[in-house]
Amino acid sequence: MDSSPYSTTSEIFAVGGEDYLKEGHTPTTLPERQEEILKLRRSLKPAARGAGAENTFLSGKAGQGKTAAAKAELSELEAFAEAQALDLTTVFFSCEGISSSYTLACGLCEKLGGENPNGHPMQKVLDHLWDAMNDIGGTIIIVLDEIDNLGTDDKILYSLPRARDKDYVNDDVYPSIIGISNDLQWRDNLDPAAKDSLYDDSIFFAPYDANELRDILSRRASKAFRETTLVYQNPDGEEFEISVDLDDDDDASLTECFESVDADRDDCTLVRVESDVLSDDVIPLCAAYAAQDKGSARQAIKYLRKAAAIAESEGDTRVEEEHVRTAKGEAERELIIEGMEQLTTQGHLALAAVTILELAGHSGIRTRDVYDVYKALSDHIDADQLAQRRMRDHLIELDMLSIIRARKSASGSVGGEAYTFKLRVEPSTAIDVLEAVSRFDSVDFDDLVKNWLTEQQTLG
Questions:
Q1: Domains of the chain, each with CATH number or no CATH
Q2: What does the alpha-carbon distance between residue 101 and residue 129 come to, in Å, rounded to a whole number?
Q3: pTM for the whole structure
Q4: Segment of 19-28, 299-308, 421-430, 445-454 carrying the highest mean pLDDT
Q5: pLDDT at position 175, please?
Q6: Distance of alpha carbon 371 from alpha carbon 108, whole angstroms
Q7: Comparing 13-27, 351-365, 441-455, which segment has the lowest mean pLDDT?
């Protein structure tokens, strides 16, 4: 049974170790975000006195610890409120897939009151929301993750922070909002009244640098992998190992480990990881790759997880630098495929045209060549047909997404810019993505390629 490819025995991962490298794992302490957490704590402080917390906006690119920081600090506040018998309610709500104030208001009604009033007029829904808050009473903190999905529909964002001032809720109800967004510009597009009422404080989470990512990966690795410990250095320059038996991100368990070696955690520096299954270059390389790109902890952790999985699948008992390089390539390919899947119809048409021409043997594909195929495809699927210049804009966007390569030549027609285009992905990969798009169900790409090959031969 041990010979099965699905054997639970791993030479690399600790039992349950993969969980520490998955996106769903939320650390309870974030040493690299102490400055941002202190600012958030200041905004939440009034709630510890039985009043309303400040409305706060957390912004920064994906993978910067915004959501983890909010969850960790609210957990601290909840523990304090319970110990002090404070009337506090916190609600965490993901706005993924939510595109209107109406849908958000219905979702909040269900979270707070157990009933979803979908189908009622907006004002009736808001009345349900105020009633639910009145029934709960006390301080109510609503965290809206990915709040930018609402776009410019800011009715609920205007109404919620003003609910107390407008007497929508009782005097003993203190509602506030923590908004979290990866879109740094979203807030600027709100109605000025909503923007002013929504956010008393704004906290920006800057991208992690390579050293910070190295420390984050090191802490995760100490629990994810076999025979892996953290090496710290005290102010006297003495080094000592820390091996955590419990959750490596649990503040209490880490503190106990430092106390066991008579060290003050705040005065010590993490210097490296000692591991029988990770080569010395693995964590620094994962951190460096992610820092050079987006400074995202999520991305760095993904590289490490993939590298270990690749090593294990190849029968290796140690993760090496080449596994990280392979993991980076796979992750980038997955990201490009995701980018192709999320294109608009016009983006898919532009990609399809370039793909067909490349499969037909065209080299140095020019804008007018792409446009000829694009027009035929647009007619075939009954899509709106853009002018050549607008279609070219979509090609340039595909270049920015690393899906195709656009090269500008010295001159174009009528004083314009001339471009040539080439796929950066395998044509078969592009075809797989396009064939999965329902709008292209009637398109036979093999026939189209044959037709353009025939036309090329005829012209030749």
A1: 20-204 (3.40.50.300), 209-330 (1.10.8), 343-459 (1.10.10.10)
A2: 12
A3: 0.77
A4: 299-308
A5: 92
A6: 47
A7: 441-455
Q: Which two tokens stand for residue 271?
A: 């210097």
Among 2-6, 61-65, 387-391, the least confident range: 2-6
**Mean pLDDT rounded to a whole number for the chain:** 86
User: Which tokens sit at 22?
Assistant: 């998955």
pLDDT tens digits along 139-174: 999 999 988 888 777 788 888 888 888 889 999 999
Question: What is the distance between the alpha carbons of residues 309 and 439, in angstroms, rounded to a whole number?
Answer: 36
User: Rounded to an integer, what distance in angstroms lies between the CA atom of residue 275 and that of residue 91?
Assistant: 40
